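Re: Re: ligand-bound prediction request (bumping)

Still looking for help on this. To restate: I need the protein modeled with adenosine-5'-triphosphate bound, output as structure tokens. Inputs repeated here so nobody has to scroll up.
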Amino acid sequence: MLDVRGIKKVYESKDRTVEAVRDLTFTLGQGELACLVGPSGCGKTTLLKIMSGLLEPTSGEVLMDGARVSGPPPGMAVVFQEYGRSLFPWMTVRENVELPLKQKKLPTERRRQLVEESLAAVGLAEAHAAYPWQLSGGMQQRVAIARAVAYEPHVLLMDEPFAAVDAQTRADLEDLIRDLWHKFKVTTLFVTHDIDEAVYLGQRVLILSNSPTVIRDDLTIDLPDERDQLTTRSSPRFAELRARVYEQIHRAKTASPDEPVAAGATPAPVTQDHSGA
Ligand SMILES: Nc1ncnc2c1ncn2[C@@H]1O[C@H](COP(=O)(O)OP(=O)(O)OP(=O)(O)O)[C@@H](O)[C@H]1O
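Reply:
Sorry for the wait, this slipped through. Here it is.
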């Protein structure tokens, strides 16, 4: 479904060369919900920009449904951290959600239906006539999520979408993402620097090394599919998994980029085959 193959990115300017991403290869299966974590500055945003066709890799390629990504692909939606900047303040909530559907040239009735469904799915049916600046931060981020969902993407990329909201809203939004994923089964890659969030949300967690970046670990999250903030987060398995991710990130921060990654990984019976959904 989504193949990331040997991605390398070197930023070059007149006086500086930064090798941000060295060699990233992974596949996201159809309908999979995977989280990507890594130390600050390890290239998460760089990778997402490359995956969404906004940035050219130095080498390697991204394939979506077998086709090489060379610009923003039609079946992909991206939700960024800065909801305040991604919504147009002069448009109502409804108009913001509808805009990409107009660009997709969908007929009026279908647009109306998708906008209503997606706003209802994020619990904002009543807010359709409001302007973004009349809403709280968490509500604005829900509008951004509704806009992405209404677009009916095959792939949804999310770049630290909850970094700027308070803890309670963040927990609600995490549950919203799991609900939407259950409902729409969109292939989702969720980037976060929050280890607990990654383990709580994902079926799988990809852990990146320090820059220049490679994949340090690829962990299957074998928690029950039905998750809730209290029971899941207090389960012994959750604690084991978060400890494993924490350890890998800690190693990633201190290891030299050339250290063999597999040698640093703790053997544990949690990494499984990801070829299926
Ligand atoms: N346009 C650019 N020009 C030069 N270097 C860049 C550019 N964008 C990013 N970098 C460098 O590439 C590396 C990775 O940056 P990136 O923003 O992708 O990391 P990140 O993991 O998303 O960071 P954070 O966790 O802090 O959000 C950093 O060293 C950064 O300074």
